[in-house]
Amino acid sequence: MTCAEDVRYVADVTVFAAYDVMELTSEDLSKRDIRAEIERTLEALKGRDEKELEEEIIARRRLDLCPSCRRKFLTSMPEGGPAPA
Ligand SMILES: [Zn+2]
Predict the structure, then answer these.
(1) Which of 4, 14, 32, 45 sits between 20 and 30 A of 39, alpha carbons compared?
(2) Neighbour count for residue 5 (Cβ, 10 Å)
(3) Cα(84) to centroid of ligand 1, in Å?
(4) What is the mean pLDDT of residues 21-42?
């Protein structure tokens, strides 16, 4: 992004895995073998690059935008709900 305007905007974007343990119902817990799933997950993570793993769970990007880049950035965003308060 190249620009020469004075007004700047900062886009602080955090993309994180939307896995929420609290959303598991008791039915889920009884039907699924959570322990086995955790072990499978840990097994899959073995030998992976730590930085790469972190990026997979949470990726942060800070963008410095001028007004026209800001507009481009916002219009290129996929539709989503409002940010949580
Ligand atoms: Zn710009």
Answers:
(1) 14
(2) 11
(3) 27
(4) 71
